[in-house]
Amino acid sequence: MSREIFAYIEHHDGVLDDSALELINAAKKIDESANVVALVFGSGDNLNKACEEAAKTYNTVWKIDKPDLSYPNAELIRPMLVNILPKGSVCLVPHDTFGIDLAPGLSVKMDVPYIPDVVGIDKVEGDKIIAIRQEYSGQVHTHVETDMANGIVITIRPGSFEPDESKSASGEIVDKSADAGDVEAKRKFIEIKEAEAGEVDITQADILVSVGRGIGEQENIELAEELAEALGGVVSCSRPVVDAKWLDHSRQVGTSGKTVKPKVYIAVGISGAFQHVAGIKGNPFIVAINTNPKAPIFQVADVGVVEDCIEFLPVLTEKVKEMK
Question: 146, 157, 180, 212: least buried by Cβ within 10 Å?
């Protein structure tokens, strides 16, 4: 008998987050024959739009429409999930700032195991699951085994599973708003304040040359700028470069910076911690340049170059110019 797996779907103004297409493949790794149900919370037209989009990927979509959910609030959504999820449910949640808020408390309220920040599923035997996590900034992979007979909550690291872009489903949308019940929260959404735009909008760039701590010093960023100019792209960065005040915060990629969707992403001297990689969406072609062959960035890169970026960048720039 196949199990039922639930996937919490994030959306913004009715547009699904990239993780929505990844969670279904993560669920299939747990149980290929599972009926994967999309859980979509929100309010009004944006929610309807998100549900219709989710139904192109998921065979079943549960819609929870509440006026207080025009902006996601984990304090409200957590008890609603407890109200609607069947006993023994496997629930997958994206491992991002909202998922980190939602999932631990959900596992406590459901009284089930919790595995955070999963990057892979090693194997499932009956009710035993062995999930793969990363430790020490991705330097070590750990295999975590637990029993999910009574249910489990798992957060999935964005980008760890291939997205299902087939749009092959014609899913049924089921309104579960009444079953979710009416709950109150001590905190409420007030407003969104957009960050001031910088001189360059990295979110619109097709090609990004992104520099990290490995660039050495501020003067060396010029090497990345020359490569970006030759490629027709722009320079972005990881958090240490912003902390050092070498580049403006508007150039930062990651959970505490901007989310980008380039076609090509060149990571220069970037180790590839989760907080940075989580800001790269859209499955771009990633080139990583780093002196450490065990750097986590190589695990997501399409091409890896183990070289000193200070020496390699000028050579690459010249080759690009020659090809043009």
Answer: 146
